Amino acid sequence: MAKKEKQKHYTDDFKRDAVRLMENRGKSTIMQVADDLGINDRLLYHWVKQFGTKSTAVPNEQVESLEQEVRRLRRETEQLRIDKAILKKAAVLSTRHGNARVGSVPELRGLKCSDCGEV
User: Fold this and answer.
1) What's the pTM value of the predicted model, to 2 decimals?
2) Hey, where are the domains in the chain?
């Protein structure tokens, strides 16, 4: 006679996380998600019926548009950092040269001081 396997018990948090993974699985199959979690795919289907709501799943199109927005905002942030550095150097230059070296900012190289004409 074969020994009966001891039944595993999973917390509700684990089950909800598993359902969330399944609902947002992207290109993965349900069997792949279940295999990654070390559970049977039927068990995952059961948890989906118990805990799943389609409203918690984020559609792939929405994820892609959010990723595009993040990339756009990162580019914009980098440009703003560059602009800030330029303005900072220009402010120093306009206050009679200060201690900053204008030549260290490529965008300001070759600019002449409006007061004395010095580069």
Assistant:
1) 0.39
2) 12-56, 60-108
